[in-house]
Design a protein that fits this description.
The chain has 154 residues and is of the alpha+beta class. 33% of the residues lie in helices and 27% in strands. It contains 4 helices and 9 strands. The strands form 3 sheets. A 4-stranded antiparallel beta sheet has the order 1-2-7-8, with no helix packed on it. The longest helix is centred in the first third of the chain and has 23 residues. The relative contact order is 0.17.
């Protein structure tokens, strides 16, 4: 009897794991999922994908001199809203490294080009994004703040 109960629990657990993975994405799109109410949500995306977004950040980040002198580096967490138009608003630092670095990251994200907005059942919606940024040593030849392209100047 004990063995039967253990076998039943094992099968029940295994079955529920497979059931969840099949319902998470919509038609093979990893950026889409279905909610319990049946709404299809597609997450916002930087044009060109995640790699292009981090490339944009890497190429345009200006390492502040005072942070460079102190060799400030590490992982920070930022949050922002992607509007229905794809514009980036409400940029904030959830976990910062240094006041000067945090300020530069906020400027950089506010100047980011428009994203492809999130959708709910095919209609664009606002979507809050939270992401990590890893900062290492600075590089030569970085752009100045005046060289950054504003999202509304496309």
């Amino acid at each position: 009897m004990k063995r039967l109960l253990v076998l039943f629990l094992f099968c029940y657990t295994l079955g529920s794991l497979f059931a969840q993975s099949a319902a998470d994405s919509v038609s093979g799109n990893p950026n889409s999922y279905t909610t319990k109410t049946g709404d299809i949500i597609t997450q916002p995306e930087f044009k060109g994908g995640v790699e292009k977004m981090y490339e944009y950040i890497s190429r345009n980040f200006i390492y502040p001199e005072e942070a460079k002198k102190r060799s400030v580096k590490g992982k920070m967490e930022v949050e922002f809203t992607v509007e229905k138009s794809g514009a980036i608003t409400y940029v904030s630092v959830l976990k910062g490294l240094d006041e000067s670095i945090d300020g530069e990251i906020v400027k950089l994200l506010e100047a980011m080009p428009r994203w492809t907005p999130a959708t709910k059942n095919g209609v664009p919606v606002r979507y809050k994004v939270s992401m990590p940024i890893n900062l290492r040593a600075s590089r030569k030849g970085q752009k100045s703040n005046q060289d950054l392209m504003r999202y509304d100047e496309e």
